[in-house]
Amino acid sequence: MSDTLFTKIINREIPADIIYEDELSLAFKDINPQAPVHFLIIPKKPIATINDIESQDREVVGHLYLVAAKLAAEMGFAEDGYRAVMNCNPHGGQTVYHLHLHVLAGKPLGWPPYQDKLKTA
């Protein structure tokens, strides 16, 4: 796999608003946010798509979700809820071919007919 935009962020070749980093992953704010809170969590290991995940990648992929839950709690939106999603290939909306978990929060993200049933603070 050739270097992607995300590989360059990991290597600090291009800037990003990094909010978390550990030995397996890096999280940074999305440059085109779709919600008041929108960040990406990426593995440091380059994996192009969901289709390219192999059995030895289970730990790192699960780790991305653990980081999402940790950051949701720390940032204060875990109880209200959030969306964590990965896109795969063109029809799935993937534009950067380095696996990444989108975390979106800060507003109701449910299907519109159910918006009135959501509890309000």
TrEMBL record:
Identify which residues the record assigns to the active site. Answer: 100
Q: Which InterPro entries match?
A: Histidine_triad_CS, Histidine_triad_HIT, HIT-like, HIT-like_sf
Question: What stretches pass through the bilayer?
Answer: none
Q: Where is the HIT domain?
A: 5-114
Which Gene3D superfamilies does the annotation name?
A: HIT-like
Q: Look up the domain of life of the source.
A: Bacteria
Residues forming the motif Histidine triad motif are 98-102
GO molecular-function terms, A-Z? catalytic activity
The record's section on Pfam families has: HIT
Q: Could you identify this protein by its name?
A: Histidine triad nucleotide-binding protein
The species this protein was found in = Bowmanella pacifica
